Amino acid sequence: MLEPSTVAHVHTRLRETSPLVQVITNYVSMDIAANLLNAAGASPAMVHDAHESGEFARIAGAVVANIGTLSDPWVDGMLAAVAQAEADGTPWILDPVAVGATTFRRDTVDRLLEHNPAVIRGNASEILAIATSAGAGRGVDADAAVEDVRSDAEALASKLGTVVAMTGATDLVTDGTRSVTITGGDPRAPMITALGCSASALVAACCAVHDDALEASASALAILSAAVEKAGEKAEGPGSLRWRLLDALSTLSADEAAAVAAR
Amino acid sequence: MLEPSTVAHVHTRLRETSPLVQVITNYVSMDIAANLLNAAGASPAMVHDAHESGEFARIAGAVVANIGTLSDPWVDGMLAAVAQAEADGTPWILDPVAVGATTFRRDTVDRLLEHNPAVIRGNASEILAIATSAGAGRGVDADAAVEDVRSDAEALASKLGTVVAMTGATDLVTDGTRSVTITGGDPRAPMITALGCSASALVAACCAVHDDALEASASALAILSAAVEKAGEKAEGPGSLRWRLLDALSTLSADEAAAVAAR
Amino acid sequence: MLEPSTVAHVHTRLRETSPLVQVITNYVSMDIAANLLNAAGASPAMVHDAHESGEFARIAGAVVANIGTLSDPWVDGMLAAVAQAEADGTPWILDPVAVGATTFRRDTVDRLLEHNPAVIRGNASEILAIATSAGAGRGVDADAAVEDVRSDAEALASKLGTVVAMTGATDLVTDGTRSVTITGGDPRAPMITALGCSASALVAACCAVHDDALEASASALAILSAAVEKAGEKAEGPGSLRWRLLDALSTLSADEAAAVAAR
């Protein structure tokens, strides 16, 4: 369902246009998310405070709101940015890190969801928690797997009119009608902290250069899977997997990215 | 005094149980501390704000409070988390970064110490500063060495009823009665920024899986020393030492970890 | 105009005296800026909050104020630190990240500039934006190149009585009267996120050990160029360029650093 030529197209557009992506993200992911966007050809900008996040969103090609290390000023900054993005028709991506863990996270996600994200990118437990809260899921499970949450993800996407990009050993991207799975990567990838947050940032970058959010999200995950897999060939652990991922991403060809979709 | 079999046991438990460690730490250490915990088998969560830090501490196996980049909201978040940890009997670790440098740091450490940390992990200057402030040390010295501060550290541990883990070229772990020294590592390790902060996080992870805080702390430092030493064999500077450390930690065997204790 | 012997002198002084540099910088750059200073022989301290930033500035050899991820509490902390630095005659460096992008950034830079920075380190677009705002530049251009902004940079340096260090494919350092260009580095260096922020931190470290701010700034950029170039010989992308840069910086000889000035 994901055409290899679409992935190749998105990959090439990223490098040709270097979209400006406003990434409001947690402290842990700042370094890796910015470096990963740079390696992929995009232009990251971590502008989070309400004094300027809305103003900056006007010039951004896409916006990320990631709740990993939350506090009130950051919630205000995220809301200002995504409200502006919504008003301008700029795609924005929600990364609901550990949304099931605390009341503060659940409440913040509820407020953010009022502004119609183009994509929700999370792991199976996070997607299940949101789906259940939205009346489209079947409970909470901290160790949920992508395949077990597929129907919840599809129901959530339909209900909210958004794309859900759920990552794990296999990735699932769905808009409720169309669903795409992506395989690849490396079993050691979960040891790279904030790789999921960085995936959300890359999804945003691809949404900035390609209007179909399902295709853009799936292409982002295909590009990332291809690069992780290439990096894994010579990596000896999570430390070398990380820097080799950045090297691989910066030198990845459109054909290598597209090959993941052809599986 | 530190049995090799204890280190091997703690090392194995870390990987088998993947304890959830709440790390309230400074901005500089976020990336390396999280990646180091992941490589060692633990599960890091950087949840710092008072809106949720106490609630989150209820599900954490251990908590770290690190004062490296301090501000009022973070002090509030640390106090909420460590108060909850104290109430639940969850071990928490104090990392008093540069406590001697400013009034704000000294005052904050005084407030945190009221909540009975299981372990204080710092360098010799930091331990000496706390010991002196607590009436158990002999002055302040920004360039203090572990061996010169041994008696101050033992007196501090006795007075507060805590474990003191003092790191340097040689590490000393003491509860005032029992004292263990750990040798190993690499002379270039101090060039890896926030490696001490990451050591505190690993001490917390080990305290989450082993009840004896002295043995847990010493095992954490033995595991780290073994991995740094292994990484140093091929490292050409602090950049490669860092990623090789993560690789080494993720592939370290229980025997390799235990060997440090057998010296 | 930049004597190789000056670069060698500054390089050696860095390692001999390990100056304490207070780096108030954005979240993205925390890790790399601290590690880069450590690798170069300096001693970084990220102390940002107004509760302690002024007090800490008294013991720092130099201070950096970087506006990359701005918010009100950080502005207060920067102002407290640079006011103390100004009062003590301690050199401080302004890094005006993306100053042209928002009102908040322009206003903050105006307030910081009242405290007489020793050096302003930025890219061509940032320098042009400040010069234009100060009545010494010819407009705003997000894609400005160093060579095109040379006269604006010199006019800005003269008008403010400061050193302007403008980095790009070629670097220009000027105090309005004397101007130095530095070539070298690697074309992939812009893919290392926050390398410019880290350059500002290294400029600060060199200003802490050498009184002539123009020579100190140019020496910092020469040292960095030499290390990046050395790292680039074996790097296969931005991931390996980054860790190889830290390795190269930690083992760079005074002769290798000086060679860049001799070009």
TrEMBL record, chains A, B, C:
It holds the Pfam family HK. ATP binds at R121, T167. Its EC number is 2.7.1.50. The keyword Magnesium applies. It catalyses: 5-(2-hydroxyethyl)-4-methylthiazole + ATP = 4-methyl-5-(2-phosphooxyethyl)-thiazole + ADP + H(+). SUPFAM superfamilies: Ribokinase-like (SSF53613). Keywords: ATP-binding, Kinase, Magnesium, Metal-binding, Nucleotide-binding, Thiamine biosynthesis, Transferase. GO terms for molecular function: ATP binding; hydroxyethylthiazole kinase activity; magnesium ion binding. One of its GO terms (biological process) is thiamine diphosphate biosynthetic process. Pathway: Cofactor biosynthesis; thiamine diphosphate biosynthesis; 4-methyl-5-(2-phosphoethyl)-thiazole from 5-(2-hydroxyethyl)-4-methylthiazole: step 1/1. Substrate binds at M46, A194. Its cofactor is Mg(2+). It is an enzyme of class 2 (transferase). NCBIfam families: PRK09355.1 (NF006830). Catalyzes the phosphorylation of the hydroxyl group of 4-methyl-5-beta-hydroxyethylthiazole (THZ). This is Hydroxyethylthiazole kinase.
